[in-house]
Structure formats: C-alpha cells, structure tokens
UniProtKB/TrEMBL annotation:
Designated name of the protein: ABC transporter, ATP-binding protein
Sorted UniProt keywords: ATP-binding, Nucleotide-binding, Transport
Keyword ATP-binding belongs to the record: yes
Organism listed in the record: Phaeobacter piscinae
Family as reported in the entry's similarity comment: Belongs to the ABC transporter superfamily.
Listed PROSITE patterns: ABC_TRANSPORTER_1, ABC_TRANSPORTER_2
ABC transporter domain location: 3-230
Superkingdom to which the source organism belongs: Bacteria
Gene Ontology molecular function: ATP binding; ATP hydrolysis activity
SUPFAM superfamilies, A to Z: P-loop containing nucleoside triphosphate hydrolases (SSF52540)
C-alpha cells in the first residue's frame, strides 16, 4: 500500500502550519522527513496516520495493506510507550489481544517478531530490566507484530545515546534488508536520515512546505558509518536547512 499526499495544508488558530504538501510514500521504502523545529513534521505524521484531518488537501491510501495486516498505520514513538507491568512478550501480545489473536496463533507471531528484532532471549523480561535501546527494539517488535502497511516513526531514536542510536540504526537496516517495510521516519538527526532514508523530504520552516526531496540510491546495507558520500549528502541537507533552522530558532525565542 502506498500513501499519497495531495496539496495537504493546515492551520491551527489561524497560524499556518503546513502548506501545499504533495508527496508519495511508496511501498517498501523509508521516507524521512526533516526540517526545523515547529515546521509541522509531527503534524504531518498525524495526518498520514489518520489521527487528524488536514484542513486542505487529501491523504490517500493507494492499494491494499499486506496480507495479515491488523493495523495498516502503526506508530513507533520516541518514548517507547511500553506497559511497565507486562513482560516483553506481554507487551507484544497486547496488540494481538486487541484483535482477538491469542494462544498458538499469537505465539507464532510473537516468536517471529522477537527473532527478527533479536529479542528472543529477553521475552520474559520487564521493561525496567531493559536498556533504552532494548525498549525501543520491543516497541519496534510490537509494531511489526501487526504487520503494518506503513510504520509511522516519530523521532524513534532521539531518546537514546549516540552509541545506542548507531546500534539501532544497524538493526533497522538489517530488519529492512531481510524484509523491506514501509516507513515515514521523522527526525531532527540528519545522520539518521542519510543512513535510513530512501528519500529525504526537507521541509521549510513554518508553514512547512517541501523545499526539496533528496533521493539516495545506495542500498541501505551498503551505507556505513563515516561513509564520505553520506557525509556529503548530510552536509548538503544541512546547507538546505541551516538558514531555516536559525530563523525558526529565533522565532521560538521571541514567543
Ligand atoms: N493541536 C495543536 N494545536 C495548536 N497548535 C498546534 C497543535 N499541534 C501542533 N501545533 C503547532 O503546530 C506547529 C507544528 O508543530 P509540530 O509538532 O508538527 O512541529 P515539528 O516540526 O514536529 O516540531 P519539532 O521538530 O519541534 O518536534 C507548532 O507551532 C506547534 O506549536
């Protein structure tokens, strides 16, 4: 299933937040969204996820979700959102229970996503026993358990330290390389965008408009930490964003 945004625009209390966003999110690709603070990245994600409707334009779902999909648009949040009293297995089983899937059918799905996220031996652990990186892996496993058409990832690694972020990026690349998934990935971090994005959408400051879409052809598995080509792309993105980011920063301080 692809997502197609057509001339999406929105204002909150007469403050224009997004303007004329036309964008395709093709199945099997990771589309990163970057832009200065307050430019409307999370708002755009909420429109894609159907949590809110834009005042102008449309968000279309084109084609069918994958077979066995329980929830076509599934979020992965920065703060993991795990239930502290449930084990790793219990947190994942919750989303299946919501769809009436229990017993051996649930166990099969849970075992599969635990293996894919390298969590099998931590199935019985409680969230408080896990590091931040492991908690986010559980949140990703939980999202995969519903076999979503599109994962909506809002700054999923930004609560983690830089080494854990690197490890999680490697995990996401390995996960995608084994079974490609579709994701819209909002981030402030341009290093994450160039490691994980097939396309990087650069938004201007509020009202967020598309300044440019940068496409990266290098396969994810061939993008290494410190790669000169990626650093070049990252510099280019920062050049696009620098003036906008400075202006957005000054604007926030004047509020
Ligand atoms: N429900 C709402 N009501 C009123 N204003 C809102 C609402 N949600 C977002 N905004 C405003 O819309 C603008 C865009 O917010 P949004 O969170 O989408 O930006 P962002 O690019 O994700 O920001 P950041 O990078 O800081 O996370 C901000 O000025 C924000 O204050």
């Amino acid at each position: 299933m692809d997502i197609r945004l057509s001339a999406v625009g929105h204002a909150y209390d007469n403050v224009a937040v997004l303007s004329d966003i036309t964008l395709d999110i093709p199945s099997g690709k990771i589309v990163c969204i970057v832009g200065p603070s307050g430019c409307g990245k999370s708002t755009l994600l909420r429109f894609i996820g159907g949590l809110e409707r834009p005042a102008a334009g449309e968000v279309l779902q084109v084609g069918q979700p994958p077979e066995g999909c329980l929830n076509p648009l599934t979020y992965v949040f920065q703060d993991f959102a795990l239930l502290p009293w449930r084990t790793v297995r219990g947190n994942i089983s919750l989303v299946l229970e919501d769809h009436g899937i229990r017993g051996t059918a649930a166990a099969r799905i849970i075992d599969d996503v635990l293996a894919r996220t390298k969590l099998s031996e931590f199935a019985g652990a409680l969230p408080k026993q896990l590091s931040g990186g492991m908690k986010q892996r559980v949140a990703i496993a939980r999202a995969l358990a519903v076999n979503p058409a599109v994962m909506l990832m809002d700054e999923p690694l930004s609560a983690l330290d830089s080494q854990t972020r690197e490890l999680l990026m490697d995990d996401l690349v390995a996960l995608w390389t084994r079974t490609p998934f579709t994701a819209v990935y909002v981030t402030h971090n341009l290093a994450e965008a160039v490691r994980l994005g097939h396309a990087i959408v650069v938004l201007s400051r509020r009202p967020g408009q598309i300044r440019e879409i940068v496409h990266l052809d290098t396969p994810l598995a061939e993008r290494a930490f410190g790669d000169a080509d990626l650093e070049q792309k990252q510099k280019y993105l920062w050049q696009l964003m620098r003036d906008e980011a400075r202006a957005a920063d000054a604007e926030l301080m004047n509020v």
